[in-house]
Amino acid sequence: MATSRDDFVIAIRSAFLKKGNQQRFSLIGLIFFSVGLLILSKINLPFTNYLKITLNEIVYRTSFIVSVPEKKILDLSNKIQDHYNVYNDYVLVKEKIKTLESKKYETQFLEVENKRLKKTINEYIFKSDELVAKVLIDKNSPFLKSVIVNKGSKDKVKLGMAVLDGSYLVGKIVEVNYSTSRALLVSDLNSKIPVGIEPGNIQSILSGTGKQNGKIEYLETDILIKDKSIVYTSGSGGLFKSGIPVGIYHIETEKEYEVVHFFSKLSQLTFVKLVSFEEGSN
Amino acid sequence: MSSKFKNTIGKTFLLYLPLLLLFISVFNEFDFNYLNYKYFSFNFPFILIFYWSLKRIETLGYGFIFIAGMFNDAVLGFPIGISSLTYLIICGFAAYLRNITLRPSLTKDWLYFLFTISFANSINYFLLVLFFSIEINYYEILGNIIFTFLLYYIFAHIFDIYRKILLRIKI
Predict the structure, then answer these.
(1) Terminal C-alpha separation, chain A
(2) Is B32 exposed, middle or buried (0-12, 13-18, 19+ CB in 10 A)?
(3) CA-CA-CA-CA torsion sign (A57, B89, B157, A11)
(4) What is the CATH number of the domain that holds B114?
(5) Which residue of B has its CA nearest to A30?
(6) Contacts of A208 (CB under 8 A, 6+ apart)
(7) Would residue A45 be called left, alpha or beta, if left means φ above 0 and alpha means ψ between -120 and 50 degrees?
């Protein structure tokens, strides 16, 4: 019994304490160092923040370069696929243009009317600063949905800025480095955005599911949302302005569950707009 | 002179290919951990680190594994040090198995690998959820563990062949 315990201790000691051939560090030393780093990043000391920013800058750029061959291959495969689908897309686009043209004039009228009415009731009109950023890394992790963009504090990117794909909301800035930033996508489990659902002006929170869609949370049970309702930002909390389209609410009757399908395809982002909103004068 | 030089470069490349693969898989935007299928993903660095720590640790080296973990954290946006810790735990388990094994067997290694990655992922999950309050889908991790475990067997065979080549050319 005692011998087997001795063997166990010897094996453990040899595994963790001994430096092997050509090894500069012992395993236990490095484990302690990792734990130390974790504790320091939890405490959020300036030293760890600098270390993190420097590491991020190096890693994001290197990762972008390392990903170039694979991106080229993916681009090529997408191009081939696009060529196959060209006729079907053409028919679809033609139909969409017809519908959009009819709606365009209606929207223009509504915009002008909306501005006029906002002035009447003294509501804030938002001014926005826009930056166009390139997506450097799109690490579509099952654990964390985020993208790295090539604009950072030197371009006046701030924490909490809205990230738009066209006019659709896709995320917000959660980490700013000197020349790069990380945007947490709306599909991430940790993303919570105050939204309004139309028709009905239902106020709620849109949460990511970790997949390519979202779900509506914190809704009173007696409120019913209609299928194919549109989800916009509500502007609550003052981070985003109200009315940025996010997605469409969909009820799957067979599976008895509801999801929000985002307007933007989050795995295909190449360029995004970083927007900060400020309350302007009327 | 020239052929000797080429020979040396070739040998060095072959020797450090697993290390290169490790860094590519942590740096690269696309890796096997993030395939877009529901619940199907597997952690290639786990397989690589466990196998080479078990069979030939000089190829990877603890220092490089630690750095690879830090890079992985930066790419994924996790707190710095968490992947390093997970990778080093795997190294520790592999080193222990190496020390107690007299007659190596792939099946035993395989089952032990399941225990190792379950433990390492549990530590990872515990730290992320409880210590850093990051929400993570538990089922995704479970799927990841199962597929990583299943695919270890295939990769171990491939790495065995590669290791035999290294031994044949006396690296």
Answers:
(1) 84
(2) middle
(3) positive
(4) 1.10.1760
(5) B66
(6) A145, A185, A186, A187, A188, A189, A190, A191, A214
(7) beta
The span from the CA of B29 to the CA of B21, in Å, is: 13
ipTM of the complex: 0.82
pTM of the predicted model over 0.95: no
Please, are residues A170 and A262 in contact by the beta-carbon 8 Å criterion? Answer: yes
Domain boundaries, chain A: 2-16+24-65, 192-262
User: Into how many domains does chain B fold?
Assistant: 1
A174 in Cβ contact with A159 (< 8 Å): yes
Burial of A124 (0-12, 13-18, 19+ CB in 10 A): middle
CB within 8 Å: B132 and A137: no
- What tens-digit pLDDT sequence spans chain A (282 residues)? 556 667 777 777 777 766 665 666 778 888 888 888 888 878 877 777 787 788 888 888 887 787 777 778 878 888 888 888 888 888 889 888 888 887 887 787 788 777 777 777 666 556 567 788 888 777 666 567 888 888 888 888 888 888 888 888 888 888 888 888 888 888 888 888 888 887 777 888 888 887 778 888 877 666 777 777 888 888 777 677 778 888 888 877 665 667 888 888 877 777 888 888 766 554
CB contact under 8 A, B79 and A138: no
User: Which structural domain, as residue segments, surrounds residue B65?
Assistant: 2-168
In angstroms, the CA A171 to CA A163 distance is 5
pLDDT of residue B49: 92
- Cα A131 versus chain centre, distance: 16
Is B158 within 8 Å of chain A by CB? no
**Which among B57, B62, B140 has CB closest to A210?**
B140
Whether the Cβ atoms of residue B98 and residue B54 lie closer than 8 Å to each other: yes
Q: Do A139 and B27 touch (CB under 8 A)?
A: no
Range B111-124 average pLDDT: 91
| A110/A105 Cα distance (integer angstroms) | 9
The fraction of chain B above a pLDDT of 90, given in percent, is: 23
Place of tokens 């090894």: A23
User: The domain A192-262: what is its CATH number?
Assistant: 2.40.10.350
Q: Return the structure tokens found at A53.
A: 């920013």
